[in-house]
């Protein structure tokens, strides 16, 4: 006789929420469901809490994913929420694997998952999977809720086609997460690579992302397809010859099949392996002998330790970014990228895990793979030998410092939950001032208007008599303008090349005091705002006076 051992629904919710997602990987798992539902347009929104910016911890109040896929009826929604969805409903080349993605990814972002779907032009009810309520009742269930009139209008506006689905993640305050700045940046960087084959086919998928400050509308960012091997690049070359190397093109170093045997002893479809060798990143520097246009070409390849190694795709979807695969690609092989294309049938022999983010290769298969890839590794080394005498890459002022801040928050350590009316008023005023400052700086900026937001902006338009001036942006948080007309910049700061340790450390010090000033003005609501402005005006006058004199007296100091 069978013995029913039961289960604890609440503990299972806790377990699957901690499978190992980062916020951006969880969001992409939810996007997978939309792709599986044959969507042609998928939008992702990060909605921020009132008074919080992208740089604040736990600042997301909700996540929303909207698609125009085939939609679901009630049975489809029930199956989507079940623990271990029915695998008979998935195609052989599905991006799903164990039917846990919606629950595990959603619960890693918040405590409540809601679905509203449209099929044949009709909206469903809102179906809510609330882990807090599930824990209390100790049973898995979803709660169907009739849509209000305003919700019906909203959801019909979000899903303009005859079918589609909305996934809303709430209860994000119940999950401890770092600032969403890095989440948004990783989505912008990785979505185009992860879904390259879907974004670049004859009937291309469209993916849109945005972060919404509380009470504001922001345009979506349209994700463009991006092949990290640059196989379609106009400068891509198929045959590498050491005596004809041009020092700026990506070269094909490998195009072969890797044959594997399944657990049943039968041959599996071969895995296509392509490898591309890039010039060393140092060839994009100021002192490089290449023309400036060729330096720009090299810079766009983003050759770095994070972007080296294996880019592994499963059913057309990236599952591993820059994997060394147990040191097959070493730390020195920064200019080598290898693409592998797996199918679902390879999952078991390569031990693809439940998140579809990790895999393991046994020793015998690893040796075969190494034998195939060694030719490309040798070519990459030969290219590096030709490039090692050049300097580091050149970037515009402030960009290198900004790149160091992805995982650094900007919270006032004494004001973790400040949401007083006065604080919100001050933050709103600061954001308005920040918008004006950005427009002023743009007038004197010769850089591309499409360039990413920088946390340090060098400009001659900073307020006269100040070395720096801190501002606030409702989306990006604090940014600091540094006065290019001040003697301290002209005589000293400009001596250090962009991206050098000396420049970045100096920028970090200036940014830290600017951040402290901005947080003090906005958070210190016990003191009148006008008094604080007068205090910091005097503060900056003293800094300006002392640094001007010091710079004038010591301009002849020699660089080491």
UniProtKB/TrEMBL annotation:
InterPro entries: HATPase_C_sf
Disordered: annotated segments: 406-447
Alphabetical list of Pfam families matching this protein: HATPase_c_3
Lineage: superkingdom: Bacteria
Keywords per UniProt: ATP-binding, Nucleotide-binding
UniProt GO MF annotations: ATP binding
Skewed-composition ranges (Basic and acidic residues): 423-444
Protein's UniProt name: ATP-binding protein
Species name: Pseudoalteromonas marina
């Amino acid at each position: 006789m069978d013995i029913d051992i039961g289960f604890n629904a609440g503990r299972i919710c806790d377990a699957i929420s901690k499978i190992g997602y980062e916020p951006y990987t969880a969001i992409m798992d939810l996007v997978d469901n939309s792709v599986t539902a044959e969507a042609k347009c998928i939008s992702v929104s990060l909605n921020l809490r009132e008074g919080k910016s992208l740089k604040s911890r736990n600042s997301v109040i909700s996540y929303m994913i909207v698609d125009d896929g085939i939609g679901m009826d009630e049975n489809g929604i029930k199956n989507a929420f079940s623990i271990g969805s029915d695998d008979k409903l998935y195609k052989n080349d599905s991006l799903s694997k164990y039917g846990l993605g919606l629950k595990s990814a959603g619960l890693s972002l918040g405590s409540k998952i809601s679905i509203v779907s449209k099929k044949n032009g009709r909206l469903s009810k809102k179906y809510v999977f609330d882990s807090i309520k599930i824990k209390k009742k100790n049973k898995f269930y979803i709660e169907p809720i009739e849509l209000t009139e305003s919700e019906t209008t909203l959801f019909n506006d979000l899903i303009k086609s005859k079918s589609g689905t909305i996934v809303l993640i709430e209860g994000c305050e119940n999950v401890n997460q770092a600032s969403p700045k890095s989440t948004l940046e990783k989505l912008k960087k990785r979505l185009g690579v992860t879904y390259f084959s879907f974004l670049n086919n004859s009937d291309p998928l469209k993916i849109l992302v945005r972060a919404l400050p509380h009470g504001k509308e922001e345009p979506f960012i349209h994700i463009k397809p991006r092949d990290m091997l640059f196989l379609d690049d106009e400068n891509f070359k198929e045959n590498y010859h050491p005596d004809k190397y041009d020092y700026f093109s990506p070269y094909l170093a490998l195009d072969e099949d890797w044959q594997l045997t399944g657990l049943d002893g039968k041959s599996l479809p071969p895995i296509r392996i392509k490898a591309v060798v890039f010039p060393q990143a140092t060839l994009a520097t100021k002192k490089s002998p290449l023309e400036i246009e060729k330096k720009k070409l090299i810079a766009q390849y983003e050759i770095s330790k994070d972007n080296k190694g294996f880019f592994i795709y499963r059913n057309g979807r990236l599952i591993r970014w820059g994997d060394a695969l147990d040191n097959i690609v070493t730390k020195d092989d920064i200019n080598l990228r290898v693409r592998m294309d797996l199918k679902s049938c390879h999952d078991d022999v390569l031990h693809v895990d439940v998140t579809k983010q990790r895999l393991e290769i046994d020793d015998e298969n690893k040796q075969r793979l190494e034998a195939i890839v060694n030719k490309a590794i040798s070519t990459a080394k030969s290219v590096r030998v030709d490039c090692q005498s050049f300097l580091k890459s050149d970037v515009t002022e402030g960009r290198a410092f900004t790149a160091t801040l992805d995982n650094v928050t900007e919270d006032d350590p004494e004001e973790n939950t400040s949401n007083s009316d006065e604080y919100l008023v001050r933050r709103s005023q600061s954001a308005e001032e920040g918008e004006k400052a950005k427009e002023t700086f743009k007038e004197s900026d010769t850089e591309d208007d499409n360039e990413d937001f920088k946390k340090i902006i060098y400009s001659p338009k900073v307020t006269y008599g100040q070395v720096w001036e801190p501002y606030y942006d409702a989306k990006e948080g604090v940014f600091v303008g540094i006065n290019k007309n001040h003697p301290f910049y002209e005589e000293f700061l400009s001596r250090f090349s962009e991206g050098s340790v000396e420049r970045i450390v100096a920028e970090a010090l200036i940014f830290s005091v600017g951040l402290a000033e901005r947080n003090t003005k906005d958070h210190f609501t016990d003191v009148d705002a006008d008094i604080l402005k007068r205090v910091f005006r005097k503060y900056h006058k003293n800094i300006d006076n002392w640094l001007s004199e010091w710079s004038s007296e010591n301009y002849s100091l020699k660089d080491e």
